[in-house]
Amino acid sequence: KKSQAWSALFSEPMSELVKRYTASVDFDKRLWEADIAGSLAHAEMLSAQGVIGASDLADIQRGMAQIRAEIEAGSFEWKLDLEDVHLNIEARLTQLVGDAGKRLHTGRSRNDQVATDVRLWLRGEIDQLLPLLAGMQRALVNVAAKNTETILPGFTHMQVAQPVSFAHHMLAYVEMFARDAERLADVRKRVNRLPLGAAALAGTSYPLDRERVAKTLGFDGVCQNSLDAVSDRDFAIEFGAFASITMMHVSRLAEEIVLWMSQNFAFIDLADRYCTGSSIMPQKRNPDVAELARGKTGRVYGHLMGLLTLMKGQPLTYNKDNQEDKEPLFDTVDTVRDTLRIMAEMVEGIVVKPEAMERAALRGYATATDLADYLAKRGVPFRDAHEVVAHAVKTCLQRGIDLAELPLDELKALNPKVGDDVQQVLTLRGSLDARNVLGGTAPVQVRAQVERHLKRLGG
Ligand code: ARG
């Protein structure tokens, strides 16, 4: 029994270990829908070009319809002996329709076939990820919309720096995910090129109409060099880079959620459905989802490194190494998709605790810069103002009070330029309102940004 496409040349069957080592069907069967779509477009073009007959095309279409039904019903029998998704589907087609099935592979190689399948599949996944990135942004904007006046201590070096609007902080992440979406849309352009027609590596002697196949499959154009078409996987690496950057952003947000939920901050709470308990400590409610999102970032980075390393030593053109592109790529897609979905839901349900945030901002002399600016605007050189305020903070620290709690006469004693209006400037709200610059944290600016994002995201 001939179980492999090339077996006439071989005098003994493949060893069991080699068979298992080289087979990819267990994971690449996930490409089945792309594989069928690619084959149908190829067959249709072959028939239009007179390479196969109209009845062959009809047989192939009929056979593929049945295979589709079998796979969807779960009754398709995937065989390890047939190595990969491509050979499994082709063998079943031949079983179903005979010679027409054997004509399908005319002018084609698995090398251009697999490159086409992966691109088609990835394009479909990208088209599902783009709305998820928009959903993540929408969740953040919705939290922002309710919190333009909520005051959070902004940190640098994890030390209280200046008060910021909590909405402003949420919108910082919106900017990051908006850039990620831009990046993904850009990756899509380079994913969406057709390798089919490159055949094994050099092109083919059949009069193929590659542009026609590209159009049928919705590709923006064809790969212009057959050697490049079958051998490069830079589109997958680029996707991995997009995914890594996106997960890096997710991970920073996750890290902040974990911190904010800690009793030492208590800035937010999460809905119970996103928390888990402890098997030993009855009091625990842990932010496991955020922690896992942070942790899963590592595996996405790992896949990017894996793909880069996979490609770096490969001489042109196709090498079996490329079969190793699939598991990291699949897992990257799954991880990013699931993470964006669950994080968007969780973010939307964040319970903000404004009093705790404000208390923390007041504890950290977050308005010290405002006092220095106040003096500078009244003619005190900024470096001198800085020094004066440092002294004032030291005094406050010794007495365990905030700057705004210093009696007016003591504030005035700091410098002759200090007037009766100084305490107003030292409030958290006064500090926020003062930063009324484009991109700044003044609630009036932040509200305008919320509006801009709502409009951009459509709702
Ligand atoms: N399963 C293979 C892959 O994933 C398909 C292409 C195999 N081509 C070949 N000449 N062995 O890359």
UniProtKB/TrEMBL annotation:
Q: Which GO terms describe its molecular function?
A: argininosuccinate lyase activity
Q: Which Gene3D superfamilies match?
A: Fumarase/aspartase (C-terminal domain), Fumarase/aspartase (Central domain), Fumarase/aspartase (N-terminal domain)
Pfam families from the UniProt entry? ASL_C2, Lyase_1
CDD domains associated with the record: Argininosuccinate_lyase
EC number annotated for this UniProt entry? 4.3.2.1
Q: What is its main location?
A: cytoplasm
The answer to keyword Lyase applying to this record is yes
Enzymatic class: lyase
Per UniProt, residues of the Fumarate lyase N-terminal domain are: 10-302
Q: Which family does it belong to?
A: Belongs to the lyase 1 family. Argininosuccinate lyase subfamily.
State the NCBIfam families in the record: argH
Put simply, this protein is called Argininosuccinate lyase
Source species of the chain: Aquincola agrisoli
